[in-house]
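S1.2 Input.
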Amino acid sequence: MKIVAISGSLRSGSSNAALLRAGAALAPEGMELVFYEDVGSLPHFNPDLDGGDPPRTVREFRALLGAADGVLISSPEYAHGIPGSLKNALDWVVSSGELFGKPVVLVNASPSGGERVQASLTQTLSVMDAQVLVEASLRAPFVRKQLDSQGRISDPHLARALRASLEALASVIAAR
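S1.3 Output.
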């Protein structure tokens, strides 16, 4: 079971990326998290570039998503919304359809709680016909304080919640 994990933050010390990496250790047996770390290298979305031969980075991103069984997105909340780089990445797959019917779980690490970014992402992904698992999605404010020095989740409640999110994702994929 291949899950593409995408952080909406470009920061090298991102709490969202750390949450995804910590999640890999909690994934159910048979689930592999593949980290897409090139969100910032995608060109600005331009329909003129989305013809027969889109840019290489876009083709690679689409191929990765297309081959995935599911998607895990962790994003900060910028100005009450989706960071521009993540929204740009999603814009590149609106018309190509790699997320059509694909199960997606959102795990947002934002100091504010991430309620608005989670709502924005849910709306955007739903328009794209992704299968957003709202009940399995979670918000994890102040994640940095809940990780140990090795990047493992030290808070048992967060560990259980993230494990449950990943198990729900696995269950939906297995039922397909």
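S1.4 Remarks. The mean pLDDT is 92.
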